[in-house]
Amino acid sequence: MDDLVELTTERLRTTPPTCVRGFRLTPTELPVTYDDDCKSVWRLACDCGEERGRVLGYPLHDYNPTYDGPECYLSPLGFECSCCGKVTEIIDTDIHGYHSEVAKIEGGIGSVKSRGEGPRRPFSCLACGAQLFVVTVSFVYWPAAFDLLEEPELPILEFFNEFLSYGRCVACGEVSALTNFGKL
Length: 184
What we know:
By secondary structure, the protein is α+β, with helices and mostly antiparallel strands.
């Protein structure tokens, strides 16, 4: 079983979930320190090859007026390429993540997370207000995800427990946390 866990850990770290397969992906490191759970980390690029773009989503404050933390967005998230203008979906918490996968198995769809509706807005750099970023995303797998090894027919890659995204501002170089979707 230890060999299977080791092989699975390597697969999870080197293979992206389906939600980001519309991008050209480059393995990378997180721009911040994060815990030691198993994770895969990817830099996004449009299929035209451009890495710079706007992150589109729903400001949490619009859905929870009492929220007083740093700017953070709800899903569904998209990436609008600065070169060709194409919008590629990044993640929709109603479709992607651990609880959504469990809901699919149980005959439904949906997660327990809040999500936005209507027109999306671009994220702005917290330091300078610019809207172009190079985006890094990460999928975090908690130890409980490895319990799925007993069910080999389940798509373990899709059972990530957290989704993190960071944008490095093209204008000023500041790194902003775009999201931190936990307990997916």
